[in-house]
Design brief:
- This protein has 504 residues and is α/β, with parallel strands linked by helices.
- The chain has a domain at 337-480: Isoleucyl-tRNA Synthetase, Domain 1 (Orthogonal Bundle), CATH 1.10.730.10.
- The protein contains 20 helices and 15 strands.
- Strand 4 and strand 5 form a beta hairpin.
- The two termini are 47 Å apart.
Length: 504
């Protein structure tokens, strides 16, 4: 058994979770479920980033304390576990004592390595980004991301010697020792990193940033986001005491992040780990963004999609399916309710749902719900399932979750065509033996499809598998993924409609 430690980035606790983070959480949950299916020992982490000027200012505007504000937002983020059917093992909050102590320990490791120094900083700061912005990146004096004017600061900060580790980081990424997926994101990072990574500001004076983790060797300074938020991946594993979780699960196997924070996770975070003498993650999978109706989601445009609203109307599995199937995993995608309903009806209700309904009902009608004998295997069907699994594993390894499910959909389509070609309703009158062969093949396809869809739509997949008396995590994967797992003579159960058609 291998261990598999998977994380999300931790969303900033200044607003309720949106569908973009819902997608990232589902992607990480997909990887967790997939590796559990393989029999791995999985640990899945998410949480909230709860410090910074923006949170302090928002709380002040609301007339509450920063702690009250982040408590409210963290509670809303925790609700995602239920509504998205997430299986995370831990939820780390950066305002927790265990996190603060772990972050301070990490800071001191960097001090011991001689990589923290004080210097005066003069530059531009964007409150929206909670980050410094270089003058060349400004657009008409505004932050290119938030389109708001930046503030000019001049102050003494602590710095981290990221430049010291620039060449080592490039080598780790180039060699694949630290995998960055997809390949084009890896190239993007290397194009920047090869010019040399610069030292980064690591603190703010407490008089300017009071809401944060105190620098352990200087109470007049507050840790800036890098040693605070990024260290959550360690602090959640009891890095402070280097306890059993840390010893068992570090290094991380997959840090799932969005494309906007590549330089932080592949650059600054890796530099911190090298300075602290810690192993680097094995892989950083990077996803794109979700727009709405061809536009970036924003409150001013009124096109922000709430995962809570979608689930309330359509259910959890349909949202999971759409985000993992319709949105390109590593590219930008688009969400509209019109397209969502179209995909739901065409693929979930008509294609998958109808296939399950037809096959189980024909088995009940013609064989009293008993798995028939297979006298002559259909090599084409069997080969199709074997190819499905090969492509499925290959695409997941490349963090192309969309391409993996497309291989499954091919087999669902093939099974529907097989029914039309073989016409079981005709065979029922003419050739019972061949009818048995056809229905056995179809039932076996459904069993394989059920396992393959479990990380995508777990509730529906579990219902399907229970029809055959199977449990998603009940057997060795090498056994369940081989052709011929269904035994003739076994009674199958009833399967309620998985996805009733929407009346649009």
């Amino acid at each position: 058994m291998s261990k598999f430690y998977v994380t999300t980035s931790i969303p900033y606790a200044n607003a309720n979770p949106h569908i973009g983070f819902a997608m990232e959480a589902i992607e990480a949950d997909f990887l967790a479920r997939y590796h559990r299916l393989l029999g791995d020992d999985v640990y899945f982490l998410t949480g909230t980033d709860e410090h910074g000027m923006k949170i302090h200012d928002t709380a002040e505007e609301l007339g509450i304390t920063p702690q009250e504000h982040v408590d409210n937002i963290a509670a809303k983020n925790r609700e995602l576990k239920k509504i998205l059917n997430l299986t995370y093992d831990d939820f780390i909050r950066t305002t927790s004592d265990r996190h603060k102590k772990g972050a301070q320990k990490l800071w001191m490791k960097l001090v011991e390595a001689g990589d923290i120094y004080k210097d005066k900083y003069e530059g531009f700061y964007c409150k929206g980004c909670e980050a410094y912005v270089t003058e060349k990146d400004l657009e008409d004096g505004k932050c290119p991301t938030h389109k708001k004017k930046v503030e000019k600061f001049s102050e003494e900060n602590y710095y981290f010697k990221l430049s010291k580790y620039s060449d080592k980081i490039v080598k780790l990424v180039e060699s694949g020792e630290l995998r960055v997926e997809p390949e084009f994101r890896k190239r993007e990072f290397l194009n920047v990193a090869k010019e040399g990574l610069r030292d980064v500001s690591f603190s703010r004076p407490k008089e300017k940033l009071s809401w944060g983790v105190e620098v352990p060797n200087d109470p007049d300074h507050t840790m800036y986001v890098w040693c605070d938020a990024l260290s959550n991946y360690l602090t959640a594993l009891d890095y402070e005491n280097e306890g059993s979780l840390f010893k068992k699960y570090w290094p991380c196997d997959a840090h799932v992040i969005g494309k906007d924070i590549i330089r932080f996770h592949v650059g600054i975070w890796i530099g911190i780990l090298l300075s602290a003498g810690l192993e680097v993650p094995k892989m950083i999978p990077i996803h794109g963004f979700i727009g709405s109706g061809g536009q970036k989601m924003s409150k001013s445009l009124g096109n922000v999609i709430s995962p809570f609203d979608v689930v309330e109307k359509y259910g959890t599995d349909p949202l999971r399916y759409f985000l993992l199937r319709e949105i390109p995993t590593v590219e930008d995608g688009d969400f509209t309710y019109e397209r969502f309903e179209e995909v739901y009806n065409s693929e979930l209700a008509n294609n998958l749902g109808n296939l399950v309904n037809r096959v189980t009902k024909m088995t009940e009608r013609y064989f009293e719900g008993v798995v028939p004998e297979l006298s002559v295997p259909d090599e084409g069907i069997k080969k199709g399932i074997e190819e499905m699994w090969t492509t499925y594993h290959k695409m997941i390894d490349k963090f192309d979750i969309k391409k993996a499910i497309e291989a499954v959909i091919v087999q669902v389509d093939a099974a529907n065509k097989y029914i039309e070609d073989k016409k079981p309703w005709v065979l029922a009158k003419e050739d019972e033996k061949e009818l048995g062969n056809v229905l056995y093949n179809l039932l076996e396809v459904l069993r394989h499809v059920g396992y393959a869809l479990y990380p995508y739509i777990p509730e529906a997949a579990e219902k399907l598998l229970k029809t055959f008396g199977c449990e998603p995590l009940g057997e060795n994967f090498d056994t369940i993924s081989k052709w011929g797992g269904l035994k003739a003579g076994e009674k199958i159960g009833e399967c309620e409609p998985l996805f009733p058609r929407l009346d649009i």
